[in-house]
Structures are given as structure tokens and as C-alpha cells.
């Protein structure tokens, strides 16, 4: 699938004061790796187009060559997750719930599983309101070592019981490559959190197990880096990757993070994978959950995921952004009306 | 309107190694300005709550006092534009078109006025499709001094002629305080561009003339700074300020700027002023205009503003983000359907 | 000086699904403007190199053309301020004090002129400690409309008196294009503040008056945008522009802004203009002034500018970042020792 | 060490429209956890100071309580790594080389170990020039799954052989908690890379093994989050943590990341741990390495770490930022001269 000879994969811009020998070195190195050079000599600067296998060319440290000002990659660094590779939308089945290609799914539940009762209260409410997939975490990454870290396997057991009781598949986060088998043995969809998007050993492990993966965007990752992370999982053999936009870090402090809603149509253009939005963790405030969820529906996302808690002021994790069961139910009414305008199957 | 004695306006946190004299200095300075101090002596650090007139207290350089670690403002720095001051939504009339309080308006037209024909072609198309206000600039701020800078007064004349022809009020940008009277003599709504949001002399001039002002968010301004900028205009006597979210600068390069759609509900909570969204300048790509406009409708905005050009590849400014008249017409159909779900008057 | 025919000024990357007609349109448009196209047809994507006059090519909205994925500029958008145009360091005389090309100058004084006494106290101290240029502002841009806005012309008069008294030229800020003549009639060096770096009407005015200009970097401007702003002044005829790095806006909140010290060597590579550093406004805390000033000396800057106040806790503007006269004197001892290692003339 | 009763740990700001019952709920919840409330009723807003154990108070989701506008933490969230806990500089011994408290160390070597020869060539050169610790990685986290991932254990063996040959301890990165024992069995100092700063399971493992840890700042982490990450390691029992500033992600693209040199004096004020700077990975360009290294020496850092490669244009990882052995040798001469001015022991 890699573009073969003939694709201009990299543009190498020489410095204005580069000498002929500098250009020759670049051209020779390209020849050594089986690539061709197109040299355009200008009055100010010389530009070399490198034509050949993208991966081979992009690996070389062109900016370390004498006389090179910068090297500009032309082709995208990922391939399998690219829409160029697979033009149609991918539809992914999560425990019987389809996502992508016009299938829109609501994922809801508590941020963290705190107890069987707390989980079941939330699960019953979100199921009744129309959520198709349950969320709830058993392992939590916490900025402070003094915060609650999750119920671990006990939490996964409660989630499995809730799946039986309400007929909803569930998604849960994995933090450690050593826990991948454990989480995969329980969950229908395994989540990679924002802090682990570039945890490449974890991504590779997830590429070698059978459950679909929900890959959150690193809050400081570009869209290109995010798609590269998806490629890590995909190339190991697991093609069922769902992306989740959850806000990026900016200078604005009125919100926890800045939801990059534009990422939804941008990713839809670049990739065939489904993408959902997490309005709870991006905004960080309860009042923002409904408006941001509505934007997800109309921006072209394939679903959304929200925190629901029956008593947010007692929540052990992220209470400030959890909405109440009644608020979730009212939100689902709006979601259904907007999804109908957008011709989505809910 | 300023909170009088009794409001804890500032929290002054002393350093762990501050001595008693340091705390005394702070307390004495507060007494000198007629404020009270509430001193809470901890085992690690002492905290002083400053109670009194917000503006007087927040002006003093507390972090310059010996022994002070930091000073945390408690009350917001703006007042007239705050919802605390004016709880109901403000509705602003723009040449007969109401905006705010459930009234939603589409603003459309070319980024820059290039010629009478170009303007009239766009104006006719957007009017037919349902836009209520025409956009088009006669003065353009350009990053490069070698770019097209606008038709100046000639452009304003064409805009006035289009207003007559199609019965649409228009919005145009002003760049220089010396041009305020000129632009105000033609336009129905005067725009402050993103680069001028903190041009305080320009803001003050606009506060002293009668036309409503469309204040774009600085692409690097926090929401608090933006509301402070609106306060500059408001306090000079012009209470007709409409805010416009247009994307902020982040590390993401796939889009021109990152549309901060969360700013819409955040501003709605903080201020009574109308707020609209500019999906063209935030995304910077034609394909993003429709999805981002849809998010504006459902996020709670009072309108949106888009660039429309009949031949974007010939546009002198920002052609990459202009949509075609037909695309605008199709977008308006979606906007109407979504506005109906949101109970907005279009 | 503009690169003529023969320079590959822009790389136009076509979409993978672009059709032949799309490429033809691009090639024809290039021909119309007198440029040549080098077309490289790949297996995945076609790439068009546009060869010809940079300014003509870079003005066209290539991303608005059907089938174009993106357009990547190869040559820099500025020319006169570029080191390619003028390879040697420019040395600028500020009221008798040389800056640039190995000449290093300390600029110090109060942030704002508050009174004649306050100014003279600071001026005497910084002069004695070795500062060569006095700073002090008569016009202040303030985020809040309720803050002190400066003494205006009275402040400029005090600065002129201090110049006579201590034999130091001075720098002062101008905010409004209408005040350029006034400030130019008093000051030896006119400062453009961070919020006005992209105030193009102000820049153009400054390009048409005879005093040298100190151009602060916009706290949200890229280095390229900053050099473009300098180009605005330069191309109007004023070639005496000094750049000032003063911190950029990032997500970090421990400092007021993040001093981008790397900008010093980067700018030195790109431009022949002198560059100085403002450690006071970037850090925002008194304790950071000395370490950041030291970094300026060794990073290759041509000077620095710091706020000095005899009683920071009474300062009307930015007291938290002002250092005391004694602290400035101790700092100058360190600066001299480091400048000696760096072979700078102080 | 935790501040007991009496410290005002959190300021809870109520909304202007909060009712008495809302304030009562907050006060009651504080009483339940053994904390006291200081209530300040203003004309606009009520402010509650929460006095008691910091960790207990800061864990509760105050912003989820009805009527709460925001909760502002007063005390820092970390304790053991804080200078309040341990006022003197910590000196850490790395295989016989002291770092911190005036002891300054140069760390140098190739980014990645590519072969025994490549490593030994670099090691010999940096040893001769005065580096005290060797760098070289056997495991590499790569953004693209198609890039070179490291020699793994073979690389660690070569590093151990170089240690014997040149008498230099070495630092190497660990990526996966499963590799901690392996890396710890070879390396003198274990590095946590920027992408793993918030990999809390990895941090906890490193807290339970005996080798000192070099903790790079996440390129998107605030200083407070970074110190929290150090606290994770420290509280597990490993008190030998060295911090490494390596640049943060900003909007500027002229450099790979923006070196936050201010972080050095800020961290020195907040923490007793040693801190070094990595000028290679922050700047990303060879020409920036020398100036940025010089800033590290004078900003107060306890050392620096640079990539050195005898043939950067052949490097498998990050060649563009590697300097040549001769350049490193010249840089060390400058470092020695500046360290002498700063009274550092090299």
C-alpha cells in the first residue's frame, strides 16, 4: 500500500548559502536508498523533491545534512487508518452495537465505578434514557498520587453484572500493558485514556488482542499524531479502533480543556474510522455537557460519551462534570431530535 | 454597581516563610484603602481575605509585597457586561434585524469587497438563501505588507448600495481609530477584528459612537480578557456589543485556528450580550464551514457569519475558506431545521 | 531582491482523488501569472512545484482550487528584514547608544511613569548601575478599563528631563497612530507593545517617521509573523527596527508568559536586526528577573530591558515584576561578567 | 507533614445566585470531614474558606455542589518534593557523580544506541571533552510505528561496556513497567521520557526500585503536574528524583518545542530536587544546542543533557538535533567559563 517510486514524498529545501556539494550529498543519499531526486535550482534557494518510497525517505534525518534548511513531508505518515487506503466509513460492532457509517451511539455511565449500587443506579438510568453502551472505570489515572485510583478487578466484575442486568455492553479504561488481558477478558470496548495516547507499548499490546479499542486523543496531540497512534494498533492486526475527541490543552482556563469540535469533520476527511466526542472531560463543567453533546451530533460524530452520576457531589472522581440521570434523559430527547435532522441511526 | 464593603474580592496567600511583619504590611495597606482583612493563620501558610471595593483592591500589586506568594482575584474584573449586572439576555437591533434572546441571524457575504460586481453577486445569493445581514470588508489587516489591503471608502459605498438593493444591513471592519467616524457613517454594525480586540484606543472610540459593535475574540484572548474588552466599549456609553467567537491559537495545525465552541455556553453563562460564531475564519477550510456552522446553532449562539464567494479561487483574501452560493443555500436549509429544534427565531 | 523566475516558491499538493482537470487548472493559473509549474505525478498524489515570483504566487488562494489538498510556501514571506537580504548584523544607534553587532545595551527604568520623583529616583539608580537607556511609559494599554492608563504627554516631558539630567536616551511606548508624532518628538526609541504587534496601521505610521522602533513580539505571534511585522515598518522606509522577545502565551500558569529564549538564536539566524529580551514582562515575578536576564546575555541577545522601581508595592502598573535598584545593581555585575565571557561590548 | 487543622486549604466561591441552603450544604460537608468553614458573606457573592487537612478537602468535588461557582486550591497538591518540606537543595549521587546543590553535570551521548561502534565513538569523545555521564537509549518511543524502536537489551549491554571503558555512569530510558527491572539492572540513572511523565503505573514502579530517576517534563505538562509526577515516585520510597526540562508544546513551529527556561528558577523555588535541561530535544535543531545549553548554566540548572553523534546525517533517531564531537568540545569550554561565573562545581 505504500506509494512506490514516483511519489514526491518529501521536499528538501536547501539553505540560501548551501553549496553545490551539499545538494550533491542529498541527491546521492537519495540514490543510495533507491529514490530519485528532482532538483529545482532557484535564484535564492534550491529545492529537492524526493521521489520514492515514503517510509524510507521520511526516516532519514534530512535536516541533519549540511546545507539543508528544512524537510517538508508531502505524504501523510500513516496509511492503514487513512481514507486514501479505505474510502468507505468503517462500521465497528461493540458487543452488538454498531458505530460508524451513520450509526450513532450514546455511551453513558459514571466516570469511575465506586460501588455496585452506584454503578447500577447510573446504569439503570442511562439504559432507560436510551444509552446503548455503559461506561465506568475500574482503573483511574490520577494527577495526584493521593487521589482514588479505582476498584480494579472488582469494578470490572460489577460492570459485567450490569451488562447482564441491562443488556448493555461496556467500555472501560486500561492503564498498564500488564492489565490488557484482564480488561479484555471483561470489557466489550477497551479505552485508552488521553494520557496514554502515546504510550506505544500499551498501544501495541492492544493491537494484539481481539476487543475493539476506544482511543482518546491526547490532550496535547495533533490530529496527525492521534492517527499515528491509531495506526500503531491497526498495524498489529486489530482493525477495530474508534477515535474519541476529548478536548485539547490551550491557554483558556474557563474550561478544563478546549473541545476541538473541528477535529470531527477533519478526522472524517482523513480517516475511515468512527469518531465520538466526550463532552464531559473536555468542558469539565456540568452545564457544558448538554450544549457540547449537541455539537457532537451535528458535527458528524458517530456517538458521544458522558459521565452520569446520581449524586455528583459525592463522586470520587470528576464530580464537577457529571450530569444527573434526569439531565441525561432530557439531553437524549434533544439528541434524538438533532440526530433525526442529521439522518443518523440512533 | 461595584460590590461595596463586605465582598471578599481577593485572596492573598502568604509564603510559608512570610514573617508577621509581612502579614501586617498587607493588612495595613488594606486598611489604608478602606478595605478589611480577614486573616487565617495556618500551620503552613497564612491566607488573607481582602474585603472591600473590588476595583480598588484588585489594582494594587499584592504580589510585589514582601512575603506574598500570590493573589487570587475572587470577583470578576468586568461588571456591566456581566450577567450578574443584567440577568436577562440583551437583544440588539442591527439595522432592523434583532440579535440575541432567541433571535438568531445569519450574516454572510465576501470576506473582502473586491469590486461592485463581486459584492453584488454574493449579496444577491446570500439574500436569496436567507441571510439577514451582509458582510464585506473595505479595510483588511494583512499579516504580510505585500497583500491586498482593501478598497477603503469605495468599498463602503458599494456595501451601502447593496444594502439599498437587497434591503440588508451590513457589517464592516474598522482597523484604525481615525476611521471610526467614516465606517460608522456607512455601516450598520462595526466589526473589531481578532487582532484589534486589545486595541484599547480603538475600543474606546467605538464606545463613543452610536452604531452597534461586533467584537471578535482575539485569537489568543481568554474569555475573561474578551469580556474585559467588551467592558471597554460598554463603559464609554455604547451598550450594543455583540461578541463573535472565531477560533483561538493552539498547537493544532490541521485547522487555521481551533474553534472554541465551548466559549458559546460559557459566555452565555457569564454575560447577557449576544454571541455569534465565525466558522470561516476559525476553520480556514471550505469543507469545515457547514459542520462548524451547525455546531453554532445548537451550542446556543445567536447567529453566525460566513464568507461566501462566487469564485473562491479568484478571491483576493481568504479564498480557501469561502463557500459557494449553492453551498450556502444548502447550509441554510440545515440551519433552519436545527434552529427549529432549538426553538430559535430565524 | 525578490526571487525571480526559477525559484520554487510554493509546493501545491493535490488530493489523492484530484482529477487531471484539477491539475490543469493549477498549471494554467500559474501560467497566467507568468510562473512555471513542475508537475510530479505520483502513484498516490500529484505535487506541483510553482516556480516564479514569490509574492505573486503566495498571494493566490491555492487551497481554494478544486482538488488541492494544501499549499506549502517554500520561501520566507518577508525579505528586507531577512539575513538573506542583508547578511551582516545591523547596528542601530539609539540616541548615541549602539545596539547589535556585538554591542550590548541594558535598558531599565519604571514600567510606567507615575511622577517626576518616581522616575528620577529610578533613572538615577539605573544610570549609576550601568544602564545605557532609560525606559518609562506615558501611555499604558491595560486589560481592564478601570486601571491606570498613564500620564500621557506629561510623562514624556519628565522622561525628557531625565534624559537631560542623566545623559540617557529613553524608550517609550506608543499605542495609537494619532500619537506617533507626539511620542516621536520626545522619545529616542519608540516601542510597539505586544498587543500592537499586528496593529498594521500603527506599524505603517512608524515606518514613516525617523526614530528607531523597538518592536515587541506579540505574545501569541510566531517568529515568522513577528518578522513580517518588522517588514511592515522596514518597507515604509524606517530601517531601524529592534526586536524584543517578551514571552509567549502557553498553557503554563506559573509564569505570566513563557519566555521563548530559543527565539533569540532563531531570529539571529533568520534576520540581521538586533534583538533584545524583556525578562520582566515575560516572567511576571521579581525573582525571575535576574535568572532570565542572564539567559538573555548568553543566548546571543543584543540587550535587555527590565522594570526597576524603588517601591514596587506602590507601583501603579506591574509592581510584581519590578526589581529594586539594589537588585538591579547586583544584576548588572553578573551581566558584565557573563558579557565578558561572551565577548560583548557593554 | 500534612498541614493539620488551621490551614485554609481551599477557597470555595459561591455563585451570585446561590441560596443560603447551598452555603449550608458546603459548610455541613466540611464539618463531616472534620474541616472548618470560614464564611464571608458579600454583597455580590459569598466565599467559603475551607480550613483543615489539605488532601481530604482537595479530593472532594466542590464544583459539583449546587451554587458553587469555583473552588480555588490554596496549598500546593504535592508535599515531599516541595521546598517547604525540605528547605535545602537535595544532592543526588549518580554512579559517583553528584548532582544538585552547586554540583553541575554534563550528560552527553547519542540519542539512541545504534551499534557498539557508534556508541563508543560518541562516548570516547564526550568523555574526553568533560561529560560526566553518558546518555544512550535502548528503547525508543516513536510517533510513527514504522520508525526504529531501539536495540533493547543489546543496547544496555553496550552501554555497560562503555561505562567500564570510560568510567562514566549512564542514563537510559524505560518505556514499559515490565522493563523496569531490566533497565534498573544495567543503568545508573533511569529516564522517564516526556510522553510517559503521566504514566502513573510506570512512575509507581520506579518508586519501588533503587536507582535514581531522571523525570522529563511532559511537553504538555504544567510545572505543578510535573512536581506531582515526581511526588508519585518519591512517595513510593525512591527519593532520588532529578527533573529535566525539555521544552513544552506551544503554537511556535520554528522550534520542535519551546524550551521553558523560566521553569528552572521556578522549580528551584518550589522544590529541593535537582533540575537539568535538555537543549537537544527542546530546540530540535543543531544550531540551537549551544545557545540553549548556555542558558541552562546561567538559569540555575544543575546540569544538562545533549545528543552527540559523529555522523548525524546517518543517525537513526533525531539526527537533526545532534551535535558533532568537536562542537560538543567547544561547547564544554563555554560551559566551564560560565559555570565559573556562576560558582558551580563542574
Task: Summarize the helix and strand pattern of chain A as letters.
Answer: EHEEHEEEEHEHEHEHEHEHEHHEH
| Number of beta-strand segments of chain A | 14
Oligomeric state of the chains in view: homotetramer
Helix residue percentage of chain A: 25-40%
Number of domains of chain A: 2
Number of H- or I-type helical stretches of chain A: 11
Q: Widest sheet of chain A: strand order?
A: 13-12-11-10-9-8-7-14
How much of the residues of chain A is beta strand, in percent?
15-25%
Q: Would you tell me the structural class of the helices and strands of chain A? A: alpha/beta
Characterize the main sheet of chain A: 8 strands, parallel
What fold name stands as the CATH topology of the largest domain in chain A?
A: TIM Barrel
The largest chain-to-chain contact, stated as pair and per-chain residue counts, equals: A-D, 53 and 53 residues
Low-confidence stretches of chain A: none
The shape of chain A, in one word, is: elongated
So, the CATH homologous superfamily of the largest domain in chain A? Aldolase class I
| Mean pLDDT rating of chain A | 92
Output the radius of gyration of chain A.
Answer: 23 Å
Which CATH class of the largest domain in chain A? Alpha Beta
Based on the structure given, which CATH architecture of the largest domain in chain A is correct?
Alpha-Beta Barrel
Distance between the termini of chain A: 35 Å
Amino acid at each position: 500500500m505504500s506509494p512506490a517510486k514516483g511519489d514526491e514524498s518529501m521536499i528538501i529545501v536547501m539553505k540560501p548559502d548551501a553549496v553545490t556539494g551539499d545538494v550533491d550529498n542529498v541527491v546521492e543519499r537519495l540514490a543510495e536508498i533507491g529514490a530519485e531526486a528532482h532538483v529545482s535550482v532557484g535564484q535564492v534557494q534550491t529545492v529537492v523533491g524526493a521521489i520514492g518510497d515514503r517510509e524510507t525517505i521520511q526516516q532519514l534525518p534530512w535536516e541533519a545534512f549540511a546545507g539543508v534548511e528544512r524537510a517538508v513531508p508531502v505524504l501523510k505518515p500513516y496509511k492503514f487508518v487513512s481514507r486514501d487506503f479505505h474510502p468507505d466509513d468503517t462500521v465497528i460492532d461493540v458487543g452488538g452495537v454498531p458505530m460508524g457509517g451513520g450509526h450513532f451511539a450514546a455511551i453513558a455511565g459514571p466516570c469511575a465505578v465506586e460501588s455496585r449500587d452506584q454503578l447500577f443506579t447510573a446504569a439503570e438510568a442511562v439504559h432507560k434514557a436510551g444509552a446503548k453502551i455503559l461506561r465506568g472505570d475500574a482503573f483511574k489515572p490520577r494527577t495526584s498520587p493521593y487521589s482514588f485510583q479505582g476498584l480494579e478487578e472488582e469494578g470490572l466484575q460489577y460492570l459485567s453484572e450490569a451488562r447482564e442486568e441491562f443488556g448493555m455492553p461496556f467500555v472501560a479504561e486500561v492503564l498498564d500493558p500488564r492489565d490488557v488481558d484482564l480488561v479484555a477478558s471483561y470489557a466489550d470496548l477497551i479505552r485508552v485514556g488521553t494520557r496514554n495516547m502515546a504510550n506505544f507499548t500499551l498501544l501495541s499490546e492492544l493491537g494484539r488482542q481481539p476487543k475493539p479499542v476506544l482511543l482518546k486523543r491526547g490532550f496535547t496531540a495533533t490530529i496527525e499524531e492521534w492517527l499515528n497512534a491509531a495506526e500503531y494498533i491497526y498495524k498489529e492486526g486489530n482493525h477495530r479502533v474508534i477515535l474519541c475527541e476529548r478536548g485539547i490543552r490551550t491557554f483558556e482556563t474557563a474550561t478544563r480543556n478546549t473541545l476541538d469540535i473541528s477535529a470531527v469533520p477533519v478526522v472524517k476527511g482523513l480517516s475511515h474510522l468512527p469518531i465520538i466526542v466526550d463532552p464531559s472531560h473536555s468542558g469539565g463543567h456540568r452545564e457544558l455537557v448538554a450544549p457540547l453533546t449537541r455539537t457532537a451530533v451535528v458535527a458528524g460524530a458517530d456517538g458521544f460519551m458522558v459521565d452520569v452520576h446520581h449524586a455528583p457531589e459525592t463522586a470520587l472522581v470528576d464530580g464537577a462534570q457529571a450530569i444527573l440521570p434526569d439531565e441525561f434523559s432530557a439531553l437524549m430527547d434533544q439528541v434524538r431530535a438533532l440526530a433525526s435532522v442529521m439522518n443518523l441511526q440512533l
